[in-house]
Amino acid sequence: MEYINLGQSGLKVSRLCLGTMNMGSKQWKPWIFDEAQSEPLIRHALESGINFIDLADFYSSGAGEEVVGRVLSRIANRDELVLTTKVGYPIGAGFNNQGHSRKHIMESIDASLKRLGTDYVDIYMLHYFDVNTPIEETWAAMNDIVRSGKARYVGVSTMYTWQLAKILWCCERNGYAKPINMQLQLNCAYREEEREMIPFCRDQGLGVSVFSPLARGLLSCDFNSVRNQTDFFTQEMYADGTSRNVAQSVSHVAQLRELPPAQIAQAWVLSHPGVDCMLVGADSVQQIDSAIAALDTPISADERYELERNYTPCDVINDYTAGKRIARESRAANGLFMDNLTTRNIA
């Protein structure tokens, strides 16, 4: 396992981060793992050297934090772990059960700590940018959480670059704790964050951790999996023809290399110069092993072209563009892969 300092902080994290959206209660989504199914995955991740674990209060409406918290209490030393959880999406009832108001943030951190069975989280993150709450109110609350010791650091996720700039400006102006990490979506089928967000994070010293390296399962190329058939977000974000063409290219490269498609897609993410850490949402220990193998999987120039040739610009994926994204067109194959595409049938 490789370890790095996250951003300009002194916090050392594994380059692979265990994502836990698939752990909690099947009442939330049909592809969720319960506690008994989740424990072997968490145990294998820890035994493989992963010390970075990502959660959110939204996952399974809080049950995800409870399940992961109980497992970790049995098998891990809390102080050896880097736990991050997120706040923002609806959980519970009432008008103030979501967003980034001071009321919701302060209530949510206490509820998350109770569910996780810990006195603190290492990174407390905004799940998105709440346009309905003044950023001064939001970040004053986040700063107070750091000062209270309930979180060691703060971070952000899934927003426009100008929104992150507004947060940093607020921190500079008020002397608040700055975010050390931006968690964003990046994969062969979605690369819009390369335009502004990743360069801005590099300039400002934020770490970059990537979720959905497999495009919510699409790039595993198992098109009949329960996740690909039932995850609404997969259909909403990656149902266009270009995304399918990207998946075909991943499958083609994987066949020529005799490797799993997921390993190729993850290797592309991990070799990206703007990426520090990659989240791994695994359904099996073999999928964790595939991500670990991707750390040492080189991508040749021909393979990179094939993986990237289908990509065309698209609307940013966030809460504000849902249901409004445009279809895309792909470029033609070239070089080695042009010849092989005419002779091989890609599943």
From TrEMBL:
<dbReference type="InterPro" id="IPR036812">
    <property type="entry name" value="NAD(P)_OxRdtase_dom_sf"/>
</dbReference>
<dbReference type="GO" id="GO:0016491">
    <property type="term" value="F:oxidoreductase activity"/>
</dbReference>
<dbReference type="InterPro" id="IPR050523">
    <property type="entry name" value="AKR_Detox_Biosynth"/>
</dbReference>
<dbReference type="InterPro" id="IPR023210">
    <property type="entry name" value="NADP_OxRdtase_dom"/>
</dbReference>
<dbReference type="Pfam" id="PF00248">
    <property type="entry name" value="Aldo_ket_red"/>
</dbReference>
<dbReference type="GO" id="GO:0005829">
    <property type="term" value="C:cytosol"/>
</dbReference>
<keyword id="KW-0560">Oxidoreductase</keyword>
<dbReference type="InterPro" id="IPR020471">
    <property type="entry name" value="AKR"/>
</dbReference>
<protein>
    <submittedName>
        <fullName>Putative NAD(P)H-dependent xylose reductase</fullName>
        <ecNumber>1.-.-.-</ecNumber>
    </submittedName>
</protein>
<feature type="domain" description="NADP-dependent oxidoreductase">
    <location>
        <begin position="15"/>
        <end position="306"/>
    </location>
</feature>
